[in-house]
C-alpha cells in the first residue's frame, strides 16, 4: 500500500509543465493532511538572448508529526521541479526533487522536447541497474527502518599489521596484541563481565616494519593515525634469538629471513603486555618460569624473572612494585628503593601503604617511612595524602578512636571516630559531635553534638542531619542515650524513666531537622519536610541515594514507619512534594525535570495475589505526569514508551498519548518514522 502511495506522490513530479500539476499537488497535500500549500516559490534565469535558461519551482507545506498541534511537533517540507533549457528555449534536462527527507531525485534528459533518458538518484548517488520505482522505493523504505545493532566488525589487518586492545584495570592502562581469535575472546561483553576491568576501546592496529638492525612496532590510534609509541626489538636481543631459532626448526634453515621474522612477530606479540604511557613491557613466554620486565627496546630491566609486578606512576616518574617471594619498590630502571621484604602495597597519592608481617606502615617513593609500624593503631587508609588511622589511644567507653595525619606537613588532628576522605572532605566525630574536615586537616564544619550525620556529594553540598531538639539527652551510668531518627526504643532498664523522653509540648518534629550546606558558598538551606505522604507520621529519616546532583536534583530515600519510599531534593534544599509513597526512583531527574518512579500494587495472576512494581513519571513539583500503571518503560525522544503488560504506548512529556495499542516497541519506531516522513505512509 505504501508503495502505491509513494508512486502517487512521485507522480507529482512527472508532469513537464508546472502549471499542469494542480491535481498532483492535491495528492502531495493529502499525504500531509493539509488542504493547501503554504507557499510556492519560483526562480528563473535567462540567457542574454532572453531565452529561458533555468526554472525552479518549490512547493512548501507545513504539517505536524502527530495529531497534537504543538511547536515541538511542527515540521516543514517541500518538493521542487527544476528545468534547464538550451539557448533555443528547448528543455534539455529536468530534475524532480522529492521532499528532502526522502532523498530521491529523478533526472530526465530531453531531445527535441522528448524524454530520452531517465536516471534515479538516492541521497546524491546514482542508482545504476534499477529499472522501476518500486524496487528502489521498497529498498529505501526497508533500509530506513531501524534494525537491531549488528555485531562489531573490523576489517582484517593488512600485511605488516597487528591488532591490539586497550585495557584498563585499577586505573592502569595497557595494551595487548592479539589475533582474530583473541579479538573474539576479549570482546566487550567478555571484558565487561570481569570484575575490575573496563570495556575494551575500539580495536586498533599496530604497524610492524623490518628495519636493518631491528623490528619496529609503531602503535597508532585509529582513525586519527596519531602515533602513540614505538617499540624496537633488535635482532641480537636474546628474546628475538630464541624465537628465531624456533622459526628455524619450524620453517627450516633455508627459509627466507622475512618469513622467519614474520614467524617471530606472530609468536612473540601475543606474549607481551605494554603498560601505557610508561612503555614498560611485561613478557612471559610459554616456557618461562615467570615474567620478565622489559623496556621499550625489549631489554631486561630486572635480570631475573619475577612472580608479579605493577607499574606505579607519579608525576614525571614511573616505579615498579616487584614481587618474587617478598615485594619491594624499584625505579623504572631497576634500582631498588624499598627492600623486597614486604607482603603487599597500595598506591595512595604520593605515598604507599605497605603491609609487612601483618603490620602496616606508610612509605614515600624515596623509601622513607612516613608512618612507622606501631602498636597504638590497628590500621589506616591513605587518601588525598592524609592518613586516617584507627587508634588504640582512645579505646574505652565504647570508642575506638582515630587520628588524621597530613603526610606532607606531618600535622596531626585527633578525633573520636572518622571516615576516609571522599570528594576532598572527611566525616569525623569529636567528643560526641560530628563534623567535616578538609584535606588541610581543618574543620570546615565544627564538630557539634547537634549533628547526627553528614552526607557529602561531589557537588560540594552536604546534607546535615540534626538531632531532634524536641527530645532530651539522658545520661545513666556514663552512657548517653539520645533519640535518633524519631524512633524511640527504650531499653528495659529505663522503662520506668520514659517520662524523661517525653516530647516537649506541640513542637512539630518534622521541621528544621535537615540542612543542606554549600561548602563553596558557605550558605545553608534548611529543608522543611512538608511532604503530603508524611501527614501524621512522626518517625522518618532522610538519606541521599546518589553522589551528585543531576539537573539540580538528587534522589532521596525516606525511611521510617510506615514503610520507606523515595523522593527528590533540589540543590536549593527543597524536597519534591509527592502525593504517593514511591518504592523506587529508577532514574535521576532528567533535563525536563521529570523522573521515572514506581509504586507497588497487589495484582491477581491465575487466582494468586502477588505484589508488582508499576512504573510512571513525575515532575519536579511532585505531579504524576504518567500514572504508575505500567510494568516497563523505554525513554524516547518524544516521551516514554510504556508497556502495560499487554500492549505498548508512546506517551509524550505532557502525559498525552501519541500512539497506543502497539504490539512492540519496534512497531512504535515504525509509526514514528512514518509520522516524521509522511511520504512513507
Automatic annotation (TrEMBL):
Q: Which UniProt keywords apply?
A: Signal
Q: Which residues form the signal peptide?
A: 1-20
Q: What InterPro entries would the database entry show?
A: WG_beta_rep
Q: What is this protein called?
A: WG repeat-containing protein
Task: Tell me which species this is from.
Answer: Chryseolinea lacunae
Amino acid at each position: 500500500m505504501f508503495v502505491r502511495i509513494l508512486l502517487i506522490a512521485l507522480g507529482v513530479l512527472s508532469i513537464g509543465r508546472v502549471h499542469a500539476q494542480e491535481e498532483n499537488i492535491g495528492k502531495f497535500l493529502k499525504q500531509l493532511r493539509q488542504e493547501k500549500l503554504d507557499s510556492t516559490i519560483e526562480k528563473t534565469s535567462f540567457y542574454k538572448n532572453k531565452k529561458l535558461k533555468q526554472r525552479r519551482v518549490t512547493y512548501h507545506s507545513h504539517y505536524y508529526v502527530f495529531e497534537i498541534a504543538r511547536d515541538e511537533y511542527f515540521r516543514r517540507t517541500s518538493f521542487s521541479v527544476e528545468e534547464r533549457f538550451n539557448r533555443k528555449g528547448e528543455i534539455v534536462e529536468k530534475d524532480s526533487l522529492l521532499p528532502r527527507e526522502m532523498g530521491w531525485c529523478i533526472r530526465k534528459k530531453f531531445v527535441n522536447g522528448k524524454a530520452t533518458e531517465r536516471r534515479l538518484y538516492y541521497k546524491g548517488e546514482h542508482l545504476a541497474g534499477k529499472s522501476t520505482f518500486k524496487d528502489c522505493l521498497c529498498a529505501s523504505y526497508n533500509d530506513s527502518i531501524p534494525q537491531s545493532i549488528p555485531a562489531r566488525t573490523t576489517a582484517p589487518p593488512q600485511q605488516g599489521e597487528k591488532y591490539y586492545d586497550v585495557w584498563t584495570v585499577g586505573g592502569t592502562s595497557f595494551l595487548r596484541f592479539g589475533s582474530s581469535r583473541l579479538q573474539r575472546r576479549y570482546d566487550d561483553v567478555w571484558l565487561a563481565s570481569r570484575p575490575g576491568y573496563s570495556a575494551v576501546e575500539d580495536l586498533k592496529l599496530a604497524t610492524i616494519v623490518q628495519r636493518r638492525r631491528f623490528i619496529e612496532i609503531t602503535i597508532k590510534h585509529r582513525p586519527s593515525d596519531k602515533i602513540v609509541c614505538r617499540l624496537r626489538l633488535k635482532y641480537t636481543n636474546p628474546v628475538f634469538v630464541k624465537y628465531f631459532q624456533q622459526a628455524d626448526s619450524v620453517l627450516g634453515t633455508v627459509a627466507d629471513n622475512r618469513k622467519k621474522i614474520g614467524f617471530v612477530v606472530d609468536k612473540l606479540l601475543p606474549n607481551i603486555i605494554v603498560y601505557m604511557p610508561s612503555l614498560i613491557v611485561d613478557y612471559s613466554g610459554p616456557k618461562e618460569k615467570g615474567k620478565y620486565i622489559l623496556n621499550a627496546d625489549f631489554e631486561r630491566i630486572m635480570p631475573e624473572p619475577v612472580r608479579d609486578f605493577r607499574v606505579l606512576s607519579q608525576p614525571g616518574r614511573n616505579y615498579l612494585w616487584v614481587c618474587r617471594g617478598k615485594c619491594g619498590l624499584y625505579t623504572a630502571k631497576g634500582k631498588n628503593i624499598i627492600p623486597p621484604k614486604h607482603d603487599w602495597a597500595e598506591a595512595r597519592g604520593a605515598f604507599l601503604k605497605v603491609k609487612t608481617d601483618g603490620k602496616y606502615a606508610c612509605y614515600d617513593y624515596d623509601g622513607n617511612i612516613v608512618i612507622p609500624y606501631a602498636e597504638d593503631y590497628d590500621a589506616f587508609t591513605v587518601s588525598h595524602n592524609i592518613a586516617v588511622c584507627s587508634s588504640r589511644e582512645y579505646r574505652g567507653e565504647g570508642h575506638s578512636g582515630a587520628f588524621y595525619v597530613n603526610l606532607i606537613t606531618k600535622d596531626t588532628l585527633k578525633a573520636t571516630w572518622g571516615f576516609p576522605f571522599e570528594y576532598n572532605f572527611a566525616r569525623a566525630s569529636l567528643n560526641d559531635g560530628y563534623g567535616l574536615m578538609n584535606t588541610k586537616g581543618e574543620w570546615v564544619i565544627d564538630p557539634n553534638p547537634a549533628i547526627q550525620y553528614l552526607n557529602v556529594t561531589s557537588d560540594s553540598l552536604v546534607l546535615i542531619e540534626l538531632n531532634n531538639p524536641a527530645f532530651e539527652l539522658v545520661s545513666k551510668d556514663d552512657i548517653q542515650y539520645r533519640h535518633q531518627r524519631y524512633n524511640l526504643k527504650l531499653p528495659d532498664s529505663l522503662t520506668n524513666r520514659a517520662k524523661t523522653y517525653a516530647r516537649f509540648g506541640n513542637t512539630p518534629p518534622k521541621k528544621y531537622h535537615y540542612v543542606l550546606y554549600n561548602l563553596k558558598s558557605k550558605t545553608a538551606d534548611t529543608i522543611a519536610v512538608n511532604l503530603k505522604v508524611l501527614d501524621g507520621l512522626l518517625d522518618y529519616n532522610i538519606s541521599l541515594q546518589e553522589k551528585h546532583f543531576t539537573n539540580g536534583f538528587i534522589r532521596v530515600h525516606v525511611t521510617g514507619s510506615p514503610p520507606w519510599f523515595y523522593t527528590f531534593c533540589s540543590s536549593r534544599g527543597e524536597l519534591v512534594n509527592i502525593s504517593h509513597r514511591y518504592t523506587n526512583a529508577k532514574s535521576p531527574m532528567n533535563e525536563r525535570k521529570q523522573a521515572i518512579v514506581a509504586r507497588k500494587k497487589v495484582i491477581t495472576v491465575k487466582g494468586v495475589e502477588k505484589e508488582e512494581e508499576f512504573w510512571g513519571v513525575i515532575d519536579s513539583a511532585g505531579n504524576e505526569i504518567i500514572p504508575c500503571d505500567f510494568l516497563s518503560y523505554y525513554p524516547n525522544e518524544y516521551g516514554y514508551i510504556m508497556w502495560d503488560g499487554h500492549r505498548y504506548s508512546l506517551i509524550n512529556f505532557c502525559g498525552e498519548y501519541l500512539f497506543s495499542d502497539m504490539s512492540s516497541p519496534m512497531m512504535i519506531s515504525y509509526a514514528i518514522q512514518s509520522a516524521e516522513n509522511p511520504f512513507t505512509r
